[in-house]
Predict the structure.
Amino acid sequence: MKGRTCALDISRTRVGVAVDDELRLFAHPRGTLNGRNQTLLLRQLQELVTREGITRFVIGLPLDMHGGEGDTARWVRRLAQAIQHATSTEVVLWDERWTTVEAKRRMQQTETPKRQHHAHTSIDEVAAVIILEAWLEANKAVEQL
């Protein structure tokens, strides 16, 4: 696979962003984007594609515990189609169950007590890192077959 991969953890307020390195070994956080304005979000993602050489987005799909899709998952699926259309890049939907729990756990391990009350501002980007790490690991295994 050529190009870099960007993972997105999408919510209606914030979108966490993570990008892999050129060797596709590590996921690096890239902050959050405003999820409230879809037009602005799509423009920012177009800029990210150009700036970072992104050729695919891995978008967290919030499935329920039984693997079903609720209203939020259907909304993310529609937004993923808009992202694919606006950026002309491949879009992969990835099961994101438990990523928020794992993101909170990671943040608690690395945050000092004074900063823990601000943790919500970056939990989305940590979740994006987790999504990208899982996707990279799964694709590394496929490439080795």
Remarks:
- The mean pLDDT is 89.
- The first helix runs from residue 38 to 52.
- The two ends are 15 Å apart (CA to CA).
